[in-house]
Amino acid sequence: MNVHMKLDMRQIQRAIKNLEPVVKKSRQELVEQAAKGFVKTIASITPPGSQGATGSTAKKQGEAAISNDLAKVMKAVRAKRNAQLQSPQEIYKRFRDTRTGRINPRNLQKPYPVPGAEFNALKKTLLGRVGWLASGWNAAAQKLGVRLPAWISRHGTGAGIILVTSDGRRFRIEISNAVKYAGSIKDLDRRIQKAVTYQANAMQRQADFLLHKAVKKAGF
Q1: What is the value of pTM for the model shown?
Q2: pLDDT, tens digit (0-9, with 9 covering 90-100), for 27-60
Q3: Residue 152: enclosing H or E segment and its boundaries?
Q4: Do strands 112-115 and 74-77 pair parallel, antiparallel, or not at all (unpaired)?
Q5: What distance in Å separates the CA atoms of residue 218 and residue 63, rounded to the nearest whole number?
Q6: What's the rounded Cα separation, in Å, for the pair 147 and 112?
Q7: Which of 22, 44, 52, 141 is geometrically suited to a Cys-Cys bond with 146, CB 3.0 to 4.6 A?
Q8: Burial of residue 60, with CB atoms counted within 10 A of its CB: 0-12 exposed, 13-18 middle, 19 or more buried
Q9: Of residues 17, 33, 40, the one with CA closest to residue 204
Q10: What is the C-alpha to C-alpha distance for residues 169 and 142, in angstroms, rounded to an integer?
Q11: ∠ CA(96), CA(97), CA(99), 5° rounding?
Q12: 201: number of CA atoms within 13 Å, CB side?
């Protein structure tokens, strides 16, 4: 599913305009600077990351969410001879919300007992997927030279898009997270706008600092 979000980029545009006269950088270089900062920030706050949990803390948070989800619908037991135990993979598919990837136990009264070896194999697979949503920013990160945590970059660049165009007068960078369920993630659009605002504020602070420094050097 392609998702298009309308973002307010005026803050970034103003910051670049204010920063350009006080740095030895072209407009193109400043646009690249803004894009790099945006990618670094949005990757860090894309679930399981958040403003309060980034890096390894976010990874552990994502792994804990998976473990807790599985515990809602199944528990590993030692298989007894002739015991009829359900497949953990089938249970997972049955209760998984395809829009969000999370498990909804619905009206299940107690978790199903499942074979321990199969449960551990499923859990290992799911834990390996932590960082997949954030990997939608990997293509942009690689193109712009931004280093992201290994648990995000390990998923490769296939779930993201970056387009860089220049016609001599205009330089443009377009970045997309193409993970198929990205549009179903609650408040992802708000997080993206927050990353835009964060980068705009950082560049504006840089402009204010350099302008103040220049004025002071001039003796005013």
Answers
A1: 0.88
A2: 999 999 999 999 999 999 999 999 899 999 999 9
A3: helix 150-153
A4: parallel
A5: 55
A6: 42
A7: 141
A8: middle
A9: 17
A10: 25
A11: 140
A12: 7
